[in-house]
Amino acid sequence: MKGRVAEIFESVQGEGLYFGEKQLFIRFFGCNLECVFCDTKLEQFTEYQPKDLFKRLDSYRGDYHSVAFTGGEPLMQKDFLRRILRFTSSQGQINYLETNGTLYRELEDVIKYVDIIAMDLKLPSSTLSWGCWKAHTKFLEIASKKDTFIKCVITQSTTAADIKRVAALIKEINQYPVVVLQPNSFEQSLQVKHKIKKFKKILENDGITCCAIPQLHKIWEVR
Ligand code: SF4
Q1: Which listed site, 19, 23, 29, 40, has its alpha carbon 20 to 30 Å from 215?
Q2: Each residue of 165-186: pLDDT tens digit?
Q3: pLDDT at residue number 40
Q4: How many A from CA of 166 to the centre of ligand 1?
C-alpha cells in the first residue's frame, strides 16, 4: 500500500479552536471538493509506503501538541491514513484530523484512532460549489463521538440561509459542537465582518456556541 503525501512540516496551528498549538503536519494529496477559495491546490506529492513514512516521522522529535492530518482531504486515502493514525497513536501522539467533513464512511473506519476533528462545513454560498448537507449531517453524527469543532468559511457571498441550515443540521442531530466562523483570507472587507456579526447572532439564538477566528498563520506569516 502506498500513500500520496504532499508535505510534512512542523508549525503552529493557525485555524480553529487549537490555534497557536505546535503541531507536526502531514499534508495528504488530493481532494474530492473544489472550493472557490481553496488555498491548497496541490500539484506535487511523494509516494510513501507506510514503513517509510514511519521512519520519516521518527526523525521529527519536537514536543508537539498533536499530529495534524491535513490536505487536500486525508480521508480520500482512508486505508493509508488509518495505518499512519494507528502508528502515531501507538507513539502516544494526539491525532488531529482536518477534514472537509463529507467522507463519513471513511471517517467511520478511522475514527478509533482520531482524537480531535476540525470539521469544515462547506456552505454552498461560500464555496460557490455544490452543497454537501446530507454528507455533513452523517459525518457530524459520527464525528461527535470525539472532540469535534466545526469551521465555516465566510465570504462576501455567504448567505444567512446557509447559516440557518447549519443551525438546523446541528439541532437535527442534537450535538452542539462549537462553530468557528472564519473570514475568507482573500477578502478583508467590512462586509464580511458585518456578516460574521449577524451570523454569530443567528447561531447563538439557537443555543450554538460560536466564535470568529481568522486564519492566524497568514497574519503571523508562518506556514
Ligand atoms: S475541501 Fe479544502 S482542500 Fe478541498 S478544495 Fe475545499 S478548501 Fe481546497
Answers
A1: 29
A2: 999 999 999 889 999 999 987 7
A3: 81
A4: 19
Average pLDDT over residues 135-143: 97
Measured CA distances, 145 to 25, 73, 84, 89, 121 (Å): 23, 20, 21, 17, 17
Interior CA angle at 63 toward 58 and 64, to 5°? 85
Q: Which residue has the cell 496541490?
A: 42
CA 197–ligand 1 middle distance (angstroms) = 25
Beta bridge partners of 151: 120, 180
- In this structure, are strands 3-12 and 210-212 parallel, antiparallel, or unpaired? unpaired
What is the position in ligand 1's atom list of the atom closest to the CA of 41?
8
Of 15, 33, 151, the residue with max ligand 1 atoms within 8 A of its CB, to mutate for a pocket test, comes to 33
Q: Which residue has the higher pLDDT, 62 or 8?
A: 8
For 3-220, give the CATH class: alpha beta
Distance 124 CA to ligand 1 centre (A): 13
Asked if the model's pLDDT at residue 143 lies above 80, the reply is yes
